[in-house]
């Protein structure tokens, strides 16, 4: 008797994939050691390009924000390493959650948000996107609704 088994189906990366990538990175790196807290604008740098996720380190001076955006088809997770960040999530209305270090947030590929440092000191966060972040859609809030402003592709970062 013989049996055939289907090929394993490759699972679509999820926020759990991104969260696991963050945990792996943090277990072997100290991202805070390389942070320059004197730069007056938000900065971001891709610190790892892995097979399952990309990892980005973001520095947030007081008052800085991302603006409304999504991450294309990528799921993600971010960890606040220092300070605090407020995430506004769009579901037809904006709802806010403030994360303090060591807070972690996961989200799927349909997630639209704006992240802001309302604090008085610089915040630092580490973000993972699975699969690799290829595009982001930027939105503008117009008369109580989000409208697509533009789509940014990886080549422009």
UniProtKB/TrEMBL annotation:
Pfam families: CDO_I. Keywords: Dioxygenase, Iron, Metal-binding, Oxidoreductase. Belongs to the cysteine dioxygenase family. Transmembrane segments: none annotated. This is Cysteine dioxygenase. InterPro entries: CDO_1 (IPR010300), RmlC-like_jellyroll (IPR014710), RmlC_Cupin_sf (IPR011051). It comes from Nocardioides glacieisoli. One of its GO terms (molecular function) is ferrous iron binding. Fe cation binds at residues 69, 71, 113. It comes from the Bacteria. The lineage of its organism: Bacteria, Bacillati, Actinomycetota, Actinomycetes, Propionibacteriales.
């Amino acid at each position: 008797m013989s049996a055939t088994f289907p090929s394993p189906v490759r699972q679509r990366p999820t926020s759990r994939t991104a969260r696991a990538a963050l945990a792996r990175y943090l277990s072997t790196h100290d991202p805070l050691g390389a942070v320059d807290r004197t730069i007056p604008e938000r900065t971001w740098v891709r610190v790892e390009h892995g097979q399952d996720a990309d990892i980005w380190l973001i520095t947030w001076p007081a008052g800085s924000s991302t603006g409304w955006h999504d991450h294309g088809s990528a799921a993600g997770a971010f960890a606040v390493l220092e300070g605090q960040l407020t995430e506004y999530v769009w579901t037809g209305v904006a709802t806010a959650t403030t994360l303090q270090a060591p807070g972690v947030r996961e989200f799927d590929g349909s997630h639209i948000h704006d992240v802001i440092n309302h604090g008085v000191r610089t915040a630092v966060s580490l973000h993972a996107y699975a699969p690799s972040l290829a595009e982001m859609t930027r939105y503008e809030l117009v008369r109580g609704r989000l409208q697509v402003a533009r789509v940014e592709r990886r080549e422009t970062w």
